[in-house]
Each structure stands twice: as C-alpha cells, then as structure tokens.
Amino acid sequence: MTGRAPRTAAKPKSAHPAKTKPPTIGFVSLGCPKATVDAEHILTRMRAEGYEISGSYAGADLVVVNTCGFIDAAVAESLDAIGEALAENGKVIVTGCLGAKGDIVQQTHPRVLAVTGPHATQEVMAAVHAHLPPLHDPFLDLVPEQGIRLTPEHYAYLKISEGCNHRCSFCIIPALRGDLVSRPIGEVMHEAEALVHAGVRELLVISQDTSAYGVDVKYRTGFWQGRPLKTRLYDLCNALGELGVWVRLHYVYPYPNVDDLLPLMAEGKILPYLDAPFQHASARILKLMKRPASAEKVLERIAAWRRAVPDLAIRSTFITGFPGETEAEFNELLDFLDEAQLDRVGAFAYSPVDGAAANELPGALPEEVREERRMRLMQHQEDISTQRLEAKIGRRITVLVDDVDDEGAVARSMADAPEIDGLVYVTDGHELEVGEFAAVTVTDCDVHDLYATLA
Ligand code: SF4
C-alpha cells in the first residue's frame, strides 16, 4: 500500500479516562507479510506501553514508517511514503528492509529521527521512547517510570550491554550469556534520564566489557532528544555527563579508546574513576588467561591517564594461584602493584568454575597456595591504598551522602563506588540528607576509609 493515509490497527479506546492526552503514533506499513508481522509486533508493544495509534498524520505525535526495499519500485514507494510522512507530520522513525540498505534513507531524507532494519522491535521502541516518551500513570502502571530497583534511591546501575566477545579461560560468562549485545544508545539515555528524574544522583555504568560498547553494532547511530549519537562509549559518557549527576564507569578494559574518556573526566563530565579488571601482570599468565592486555602497556597507559587526570582513582581486581602460576610470576604481580599504585584492589583466589577452559591447564595449585597468595597480595596492597588515602588528608573534597545516623553522615567520595570501595565518615554531618552532595575536609584515614568534617 502507499503511504497516503497511515494503515493502522483499529483505533483502540482507553479503558480508563486519561488525565493527559496519551502519546499517539501514526503507523505506515509497506511490504510483504514478514514486514506486516514486524509491524504487528511493534504495534503490540506500543499499545502495551500505553501509546494510542492514530488514523491520520495530523492526529499523531510521531509517525513510524515500516519500509520495503526488495525491488527498485518498492524502494521508491518507501522513500515517497517517508517523504509524505515528513511533510505531513515532521517526526518520522523509519524501520524495515530499506533501513538495512546502507544510508539511502538518511541521504534522501536527512530529517528522519531514527532508522532501523527489519525485525527491530526493541530498537524501534528505543527510538520511540527517545522522541515520544510513554506516559507514566502512577494509578495504572504496576512499574514506576524508572523501573524497579534494588539500590537506594540516590544511586542506580545502568546496564549498557549484555554478553562478551572475549574468551578468558577462567570465565564462563560468554557461554552463559553469549557474545556482546549493546543496548541502543537512545534506550540507555532514556533510562538514565528517567532515573535522574526519579532522584538518582549517581549512575554506575555496568556491563561485562564496558569499553567494547557498540562494537557489535559497528557504532550504529542512535538518537537522544532528537540528536544523533553513535553507540560508542565516548558518546554515551559525553551525553550522560549532561545529566548533572555523578557517572561512574565499571569493568573498563584498558583499550586505546579509554584514553578518549580522560578529557571528559578532566572536564568533570564523568567521575575520575576507572574500575579496570587487570587480573594479572605476568605476560605468560595473561596469555594463559587469554586476556587482551600486556602489563607494560597497562603501566604506560596508567601513567598517561594520571598525567591527564592527576586525581584519577583506579580500582582493579586480580586472580591469584592461576594454574601454573610460579612464585616468580606471583612476585611479578606484586611488583606491578608497586609500580601501578592503584587506589583500590580486590583479589580472588583462583577457583575452577565448572566448564571453564582453564581447568584443563597443567599445574593446578593447591587451595592453600591460591589463598595464601591472595592474602599476601591484599597485605601488599594495603600499604599502597593507605598511602593514597593519607595523601588526601587536609584536602577539600565532594562527597555523596549514603546514610545519616547519631555519629554523623556516612558518605562516599568520587573515588569510592558503593559496596566495593571505602567510605567517608563525616563526623559532624548529622544535618546532611541522604542523597545530598556535600563539601568536606578530610581529617584522617584508616586502611579503607576517610574521616572528614564539613568544609
Ligand atoms: S572475564 Fe570478562 S572479559 Fe573475560 S570472558 Fe569473562 S566477561 Fe568476558
């Protein structure tokens, strides 16, 4: 069919009188039965989320055009339909087979808000959310706008992808969760915005491999607030930095693209904090682990990061007693810690997870040795972490309050992620509120935590 009038599902009536006009979408569907099924899936999701479907361009807040790209005539018809929807309505999202044919849609109609290929209900909904957010009705919706969360109200985890393209020999996550699948950037940004509107003051970006965000979709362009954004960590961090809250990055592998994030930290857009799991320092063990990085390169990279952002806090994790690890290789790891001067370190004694390739390696070490090395590593790092905390005494820092009790406020600095890093005890912070940012002066420290008074 042509795009003259949007072909729509029957216009459903709301079961409840709406207090505000629900967001309304026009839908033009072209092409074969497979395209029709795609359209049905998208329309079902829209209705389930409370969108109305309009029978006219004029009554719609936004139009979705489901295209066909099979033969030249179908391409021309699809491009005409997009042009008509743009002329009649102005806000257009394109999906379907034509979207998978290179840049033809963007080149012909640069004003379209987003373009996806076929079978892309998730991506279409992400684009719809970005340009026409669903109406949240607290009386009808079982789920609050920001979703159900298990964290306190003032911080939240923001998952940007699932799965992993690496095959570290001690890990079975790729077998359980598959290869990397990045969430569309518009969808991630919409979720982040909803969290901030709901009172979140700190977003913790997580995934299995944060630096790889967007690799699987070739850094595809998405949209947020009508603006094109590449599905890439730099663009995501830059956009998150506009939300006015703390943005903290976890599980960042030291790939070269991480260097690009340092200016964002220097500008204060994201926190000067990197949680980068290095796992080991010996080249031979890293190779057996099938890890991508070498220790010297990591040390060089850390030095360059610190030159760019002197206050950068680096957290990492390591595995002790990996199969075949010699005492000399373990000592290499301790030397690496001396050199790297990491702020926070977590260590795990190697544990043979069922199904992990590393279990087949020769030279498995007894549990006592794996554990004894873990303890030795943690003791070794204790002095380094303490010295780094001592260097903060007398400095004025910003903290985010997690709790207030009779003894004052329990807060965290930019260098402290919740649950895994240290705390800042603000001894005169009784009047502070949970979720509030406060300026404090550091007065003392112990092995893990800082003590401070209001500045
Ligand atoms: S350890 Fe991390 S990077 Fe390695 S395979 Fe597992 S999830 Fe991927």
Please characterize this protein's 3D structure:
This protein is of the alpha/beta class. The chain is 31% helix and 22% strand. It is built from 12 helices and 20 strands. The strands form 6 sheets. A 5-stranded parallel sheet has the order 2-1-3-4-5, with helices on both faces. Helix 11 (327-340) packs parallel to helix 12. Residues 1-19 have low confidence and may be disordered. It binds iron/sulfur cluster. Iron/sulfur cluster binds at residues 164, 166-168, 171, 173-174, 208-209.
Brief summary:
With 455 residues, the protein is α/β, with parallel strands linked by helices.
If strands are numbered along the chain, what order do they take across the biggest sheet?
2-1-3-4-5
Portion of residues in helices? 25-40%
Radius of gyration: 26 Å
Largest sheet: 5 strands, parallel
Number of separate helices? 12
Low-confidence stretches: 1-19
> What is the CA–CA distance across the termini?
68 Å
